[in-house]
Amino acid sequence: MEGAIHGLQGIFEVLFIIGIGFVLAKKNWFDTASSALLTRFIMKISLPLYLFCNIQKDFTRESLLAMAPDLVLPFASIIAAYIVGRIVVKILHIHKDRQGLFIVFFFIANTIFIGLPVNLALFGPQSIPSVMLYYMANTVMFWTLGVYHIVNDTMAGKSGMSMFSLQALKKVFSPPLLGFLVGLAMTLFDLRVPDFVIASFQYVGNVATPMALIVIGIEMSTIPLTQITWDRDVIGALIGRFVVCPACVLILLPFIPVTDMSAKVFTMQASMPAMTNMTIVAKSVGADVEYSTAVSFISIILGMLVIPIYMFIVG
């Protein structure tokens, strides 16, 4: 029960920050230009520093190498959810300009801002290594395959682009992914950044998540809530997020054995609401930001019901 309360507190924190963006936008503190400026700052500066610092601070060369075998299940389950998403897109005939976002909802979760406090509340500090394993797989998949599909939404009705085309690679190798890869490479080669530099990077990086939530609030202020339609595009994405993704972990567990702690944490991580950075990427590349914002917001609200259920099942 206590774990469920802590999980709901994490959801409240997210909704509170979104609410700030929503209310201030309604009061004309923010407009579409403000949202675009915040998005640019997050994508170009704050997120790259955030991802770089997370790798440098939370991992060592030894811990990365020791964890490598346990990364198989997170990657395998995320890829399985991705494949299911690709199939469901065809079955449900999802609109072409939001197919990429729909697929990303299936296999990418909010593993840090919501996932970390939920797992800490449920399993304690000993869950942190498993949390970070899923976070690493989730991050790599989002900033590569996920970003590619979101960018490809902007090519709807055209021939699209190959995953390995120069155009796709330029979009996929975005500043956030480069920040993550640089941090990963430096950690593997045991190259450490001085503490005062990390602290400076951390100050700027820490604003990425709350600022992204404020952007969601700003975007929500432009969407009449009564016009959010519960069609197959929305319902299918939510089923993918809360049912398909955790089910992929549970189905693969007998075939890819991990510790009991990792099994529980991976299941919880897979059941988290949508990643807030999806809306930031959608806005930065010109994808369907209204759809992304609506489904992200609904997934956070539904998380108040779904997360305690999974806590009860797993715990």
From TrEMBL:
Keywords: Cell membrane, Membrane, Transmembrane, Transmembrane helix, Transport. It comes from the Bacteria. It is a multi-pass membrane protein. GO terms for biological process: transmembrane transport. The chain crosses the membrane at residues 6-25, 32-51, 71-89, 101-120, 132-151, 172-189, 201-222, 234-256, 294-313. Its main location: membrane. It holds the Pfam family Mem_trans. This is Membrane transport protein.
